[in-house]
Structure formats: C-alpha cells, structure tokens
Write the structure tokens for this entry.
Amino acid sequence: MSTTTLASAKPETAPQEPLALRLAALDLPVGGFTRAARADALTRLQAMGLPKGRDEYWRYTNPAAFNQPQPNALPVDESVLDSPLFTSIDRLRLVFVDGRFDAAASDELKGEGLEIASLATADAQADHWAAGVYGKLETAGQTPVARPFAALNTLAATDGVLIRVTGKVSRPVHLVYRRSDPLADVHLHHVLKLEAGSELTLLETGMVGARSNAVIEADLAKGAQLHHIAAKRAGYQKVGISQIFARVDAEALFKSFNLQVNGTLMRNESVLEIVGDDAVAHIAAAVLGDGRVGPFHQDDTVFITHAAERCESRQVYKKVLKSGARGVFQGKILVKPGAQKTDGYQISQALLLDDDSEFLAKPELEIYADDVKCSHGSTTGALDETALFYLRSRGVPKERATVLLVLSFLAAALEEVDDLRLRDEISERLDEWLTSRASELDPSGNGASAKA
Amino acid sequence: MLEIKNLHAELEDGGKQILKGVNLTVPAGQVHAIMGPNGSGKSTLSYVLSGRDGYEVTEGEATLDGQALLDMEPEERAAAGLFLAFQYPVEIPGVGNLTFLRTAVNAQRKARGEEELTAAEFLKVVREKAKSLNIDAEMLKRPVNVGFSGGEKKRNEILQMAMLEPRMCILDETDSGLDVDAMRLVAEGVNALRSPDRAFLVITHYQRLLDHIKPDVVHIMFDGRIIKTGGPELALEVEQNGYGELLAEVQ
Ligand SMILES: Nc1ncnc2c1ncn2[C@@H]1O[C@H](COP(=O)(O)OP(=O)(O)OP(=O)(O)O)[C@@H](O)[C@H]1O
Ligand SMILES: [Mg+2]
C-alpha cells in the first residue's frame, strides 16, 4: 500500500524545503477510511511547516532530530532493555514490531466489551467507526498551539490499534513494542473510543522504533474511565515523540502515567480537553535520565483545557536527572469562560543528582472564570542530605539509602497509578533498575568512575 | 562503652568551632544525661558521634567498645551499635515506615554477619514493640514520619531504637513535645531496654524526663565543653536555679 501520491501532489512545495524532504523519505499510505483525514493533515502540515527552534513550544527542545529526513541508525540491542513489565497479570497482548502489528505474536483481537482492530487492517476499508475520531482530536488539539509532528503522524501513520470499548473491561490491553530494524522510522496512531460508562486499562511497554512518532487519540464519553500506563523504557540512543489527545466528557475519568527511563531525545505532548461537567483528568510522569552514556533530553509539554464545570485536573511530573541530563516541563492549564469550580493542580519537580544536570520548567495558567481553584508549583533540588543521613544513621548503606530517596521523590507520580498491582510492579522494577545502578547515583560521583 | 576524649569539631562551612574539647565516658549499663543551654553543642556532639556530614573533627577521638568511631561511615557506626534518636526526626514521603524499619534492621544484621529476618518474623516483633509504644498499625504503614505529630515522631524514634537494639543509645531531646502520657510511654520504652551491656546518653532540658529515666550521671555542657559532672542532684539544681550559678562557679 505504498505510494507517495499525497506528498507529491503538492507541487508548490520546493523539494529542498525541510518538510518536502521529510515527506519524500516516507512511504505515505493513501488510506481507506482515513483518506480524508490524511489529506487534511497534509494541508494543515504544509501550512504549519516543521517546527523551528525559535517556536514558542520548541524553545527548550531542539526539533532537529525529528525534522531530519532519516533517523539515525539505532542498533537493535535487547540488552539495553530491562526485563519486561506486567508479565504476571492477565492481559490482552498486542505486539508491534517496528511499528507494525504482528498478529501471529499477539493474542486474538477480541474481548468482552471490546471492538478491536489494527489500523493497517481496518484502513483497507472505506468505512470504519474510527473515522469519527481519527485525526479529529488531533486537529482540535492544534489550537492554539501548532503540533506539526502530530499532523505528520495522522498523515503518515502506518499502523496502530483501534479500540472501541462498550463495557467495563477488566483485562488490560497491553501494547508490546519490539524492534528488528535499526533504521525503523515509525509512525504509530492509536484510537480509543470509550462509550458511556465503559472502562479500559491500556498498557504500553517496549521500544517502538529507532525513531518514533506516536499519537493516541482518546475519546471518553460520559462516565467512561481510561487508565493509561506507558513504560516505554528505552535504550540510551532512543529518539521519540509521543502525543496524546484526549477529549473527556462529563463524569469521565482520564488517567495517564508515563515512566520514561533513558533515551537521547524524548518529547511527550499531552493535550487534554475536558468538555463535560464533573470530569477528572490526571496526567503524571516519572522520568529518569542519565547523560553519562550520551545526551539525555526529555520534554513533557502539557496543555489542559477546562471547558466545563466542577472538573478536576492534576499534573504530577517528577524527573531524576544526572550527568548532564536535561529535563523540560511546559505545562498549561486553560480555564475557559464558564468553567466554574475548576480544580486545577500542577506540580513539576526535578531531583538533580549532580551539578551538571538541568531542569527547565514553564508552568502557565490562563483563567477566564472567576470561581476556580488552580495551583502550580515547580521545584529543583538535590538529594536531601538530612534524609540521607537519617537513613544511614539507622544502618541503611549509602547506596540503598540513595535508591530509597529517589523512589521517595518519585512516589507522588507513581501514586497516580490506581491499580496497586501495576503500581507495585512499576515500583519494584524501578527499585531494581536503580539498585543495579546505585553506585552511579552517588551524588559525590565516586561510584561513576569505578563503573564507567 | 563510649569514650570521648578531647573532642574538637568545627563546621566544615566557615570553620566555626562548636565542640571545644569534650571529655566524656559512659560505661556499659549506665544512663548519662547531658543538659546545657541552647546552642551549647549538645546536638552537634550527637551528630559528630553518629557521622553526619558538615562537621570537621580537628582534634580528639571517640571510641565505642574500643573501636574508633570517627573514621567509620554512619551506617557502620549504626551496625557497630550506635543509635541516635533525632531531636528533629526526618520525614521521608513515599517510603513506608515498615519498609524503612525492615530495611534498617536487615541492613544491620547483614553488616554484622547475622541472618536477615523474614517478613513474618519481622512483622511479629514490630507489632509487639509498636503496641507497647501505642503506635497503631496505620502509623506503621504510613510513610516515615509524614503527617506524624511531634509526639508521634518521637515515639517512632523509640520504636526504631527498640527494633535495632543498639548498644549505645543517644537520645536528643526525645522528651520535647511529648505529653505526660507519651513521656511515660517513651520512658518505659527506654527503661525496658536498660541492660548491663547497653548504655544511654540522654540529652534533655528538663528534670521531668529524668524522673522517669533515672540517670547515673549528669553532665552540664556549655560552649562546646562539659563544664560539670555530678549525680542526679545536678539536674535538680539546674531545674531550680538555671545555669547562671553553675557558670559563675566554673568561671
Ligand atoms: N550547620 C550549622 N550551621 C551553622 N551553625 C550551626 C550549625 N550546626 C550547629 N550550629 C551552631 O552551633 C551551635 C551549637 O548548636 P547545637 O544544635 O549543637 O546546640 P544544642 O546544644 O543542641 O542546642 P539546643 O538546646 O537548642 O538544641 C549553635 O550556636 C548553632 O547555631
Ligand atoms: Mg539540640
């Protein structure tokens, strides 16, 4: 299904322009039910162009690695991944290899209360329920901030999963990402449609591609509940951007937690729009970055719009950075006129394990209603020496004490995972991961030289 | 058991001298009290003994059962049997009290080459000891000291001490902030641990605590030195007359 008709259909784009070069390097699907959305995405993308470093939302993160036509080769090295997560719980596993759905390696695409298909298969048809969502939430999320890579994704997505939830689904759907091609430049696009009162837990683990661009569009109808947990732990050289667009209707609950460990350049954009009264949207992340092996740059950019009454939103971002790692947080809460009794909370915190690392935070509030409660805070700090001494004075060795304090710092983000089995598993895995690297975490830097 | 000779210490930052020649011996089986005006260096002495960063020992030495304390890491001192109940116990969000206690107990056992306690063994002991200190199951599950009242934090310190069974216990103003009943519980906790091969160094401002925990010896600290040592009656004297007369007498 590979033609480049759409891209080449725009003669006015000079071939040497970055966007034209970027598109020329891709195998753009024409699409079945997504055809109109893809065409529209191309038009929008051409109007926006690729981001430049001086763009408001790209001031802290250099888009060059996303703009360049080809990804840098990323050797497929399973040893950089830690042991897989969530293997002990009953779940529906869907495997993607280099961003392509692998039916043979996956569970059967069915479950009670679930209608589920791969995008590539469904897109062979001209009609599909997902046409009502695909590209729609992404488009809505382009105002007031342009998100060119999300439009690029809608245009270029080759696969993904389309899930319609009609009941309370207790068995989580687990998207397992694997790699085989060191040059895979992946555009994954998932659509989630949660009908009124339905419930779904979506898990994501593994590594999507050498370079990845992922979009999730999640449409939550009245009273629906989505629990999204991503732990896309990566090798040191990973480059990826992922975007989540959610529309949250009345009394619905949207929860998303992201665990991100290592990587060269990662950007996560979360665009949540709360459109019905009494809804709740929480988004959280725990990030661990170590610049020892290569550059580490991780950026969370959040935009939450309150357009209804008595809704609650909560952002909890925690980043542990060392050896020149750089963390970015840009978080905005927009309260529209009439969104009375909004309760908006935002916290972004960095724990810097040395003086070389850096955290840049830009919290923003824009409020057009008078009866609201919104707060935001951002802190950057080192490991608490008093707490470290307290633990050591009880006989806890310095390395273990350091791990405990890092976990302690991350705890508020992990607490955003409601399911205790999942939370405990993430916490245990983090503990293992930190423990295996404990000597490198030593703030005095003594351990690093011994290991390096 | 604990022997401190001519201990001098200053702040690493700025070099301000705080301990100016402390001499103190606490034999096994005894309870010694240290009293002294605010800022005289009592907490600093306890920190220097337990190995907190930020102080530089410029002269003197301290030994525990003959082992030189000052060269050891804080966790090694703990494993050697030293314990400090903090004047201001530290809050550690996200780390459960039980997890913390078990980590500490087992880390010390491991360091001493002893078998680690299983979860079940540990729970049994901790429940018993918590009960006698009026610490309920809910408090055990909460993150370390987070949201604890002042008195609860102090009782939690004593629970840690009871679990770790140290040989040399330093209590820094464990009585401050305690109500009458909590004071009795804490004192009972301490008294239950008294034994011929364990010693206590109790830092306090008030005679009250010493009514419950009878000291063998009372020291008065002033400006980084022990300026007077006596029996329990010394604490009564301070309670009645303050430090004025004592200081005049020494100077
Ligand atoms: N880290 C520090 N930075 C600056 N000054 C310090 C520091 N630690 C101790 N000091 C100073 O050293 C002196 C002794 O302090 P310390 O806390 O040991 O007194 P204390 O006898 O325990 O007093 P209190 O009865 O009020 O608890 C005080 O003047 C204090 O201000
Ligand atoms: Mg003090």
User: Anything to note?
Assistant: Chain A has one domain: 7-382. The longest strand of chain A covers residues 280-290. The first helix of chain A runs from residue 5 to 8. Chain A touches chain B through 25 residues (CB under 8 Å).
